[in-house]
Amino acid sequence: MDASFTAEQDEIRRTLRELLRSRCGPEELRAAVDRPPGHDPALWAALAGQLGLPALALPERYGGVGCPFADLALACEETGRALAPSPLLATTVLAAPLLLALGTEAQRAGLLPRLAEGSLTAALAVPGPALATALALTGAAGGEWAGGEWAGGGRAGGVQARRAGTGWRLYGEVDQVLDGHSAALLLVAAHSGGFARSRTLIFLVRGDARGVTRARRTALDATRPQGRVQLREAEGELLGEEDADVLGALAAAGDQAATVLACEAVGAAGRALETTVEHVARREQFGRPIGSFQAVKHRLADVYVRLQSARSAAYYAAWASGRPEGATGTTGRPEGAPEGVAGTPGRPDGASDVDGGSAAPAGGGVGRVGGLALAQGLDALRCAAAEGIQLHGGIGFTWEHEAHLYFKRAAGDELLFGPAHRLRAHAADSARLFEGGEVTV
């Protein structure tokens, strides 16, 4: 696979890396996560105002740049490399696609331009520890996700919505909301209609609305700040129409989110490997650098192979996310893909068969492959971070060193969006690879 990029993509990545190198080093990162919102507002203003990251993949009619989604995913490889804490994932990757897919024209025109310029941040609130299930990344196909059981199923628990005059009132509690403690706008998934006619809808709730109580939670990965949201008869505005395909929109947003997360994981794994290689080249034992020992070389070579496999899968998922589900590859460079990614009928070059099977589903269609790419990215990041801690020796286990931050990113993302084996199992179940005990080919 030729992983060269267009001139525009190279410029975005170069500029973003320089900005994060100067504004989000280890010391700045630790200071940012200790702030009340969990990120540096000045850095977010620079990412939004100077580089326009929130606007990158939004349509121009709503204040966006109109670039392919692949450009945003590739840019997030750089934010993952620096473990940069920001509202980008919650606002641009999770909330904005739902507003674009489900919102009325008035809601889009009123909210998306503010999201694009970075003046408004948003968060997706899904009841319980079920974000990956709601985004159709894990869970049995046709089971709890298909019926929206993760949102409470019309029973006690979750978030319930009821009509109140011409509006809606929401009641319930949501844990583990990414940036839920600081986002100005909440997209809350809730059940309405009681038990007999229950359905899952999404509501727009202002963060400072009456009846909304929020608090930051202690999270394993401090670079992914989370909040607890309590709703007590809070006023909500229905996103779109009551007959909208909410579950389908969540699934589409989930595939794009998984692609971005895969690229972030690849960036983080690459940086973890770089710092480890630099250390073993300097650290001497028995009169020679420890990197010259064959056992160390083999361990780092294994990490490198995993990283390159995950990078290939992430780039393919970034290209596939811009194509209709079921579309097949074509010869030549796919639109929005890095230069040199030449497709072939049924399976574009560069699709990885390592640790997750072919990225393309049976039948030759592109389909939704973000979950598989994320599984490989999480595996690569966990491996790179674990080997980095081990090969750094005593300092790798200390709080002052940055090695543990990469391991916590891998573990935290697995808790929120995985784990990897469930991502693969759900992808296999959705593609019906194992029906009747046989592999479908």
Quick gist of this model?
This protein is an alpha+beta fold and 441 residues long. It has 13 helices and 11 strands. Helix 4 (69-81) runs parallel beside helix 9 and helix 10 (294-320) runs antiparallel to helix 11.
3D structure, described in words:
The chain is of the alpha+beta class and 441 residues long. It folds into 3 domains: 7-120, Acyl-CoA dehydrogenase/oxidase, N-terminal domain (Butyryl-Coa Dehydrogenase, subunit A, domain 1, Orthogonal Bundle), CATH 1.10.540; 124-247, Butyryl-CoA Dehydrogenase, subunit A, domain 2 (Beta Barrel); 251-439, Up-down Bundle (Butyryl-CoA Dehydrogenase, subunit A, domain 3), CATH 1.20.140.10. The chain is 44% helix and 15% strand. The protein has 13 helices and 11 strands. The chain has helices at residues 7-23, 26-33, 41-50, 69-81, 88-102, 105-117, 131-134, 144-147, 246-282, 294-320, 370-391, 403-417, 420-430, and strands at residues 122-125, 159-164, 167-178, 185-192, 199-206, 212-217, 226-238, 284-285, 288-289, 434-435, 438-439. It has a 5-stranded mixed beta barrel with strand order 2-3-7-5-4. It has a two-stranded antiparallel ribbon with strand order 8-9. Strands 10-11 form a two-stranded antiparallel ribbon. A hairpin with a 2-residue loop joins strand 2 (159-164) and strand 3. Helix 4 (69-81) runs parallel beside helix 9, helix 5 (88-102) runs antiparallel to helix 9 and helix 9 runs parallel beside helix 11 (370-391). It is globular. The protein starts with 6 loop residues before the first helix and ends with a strand.
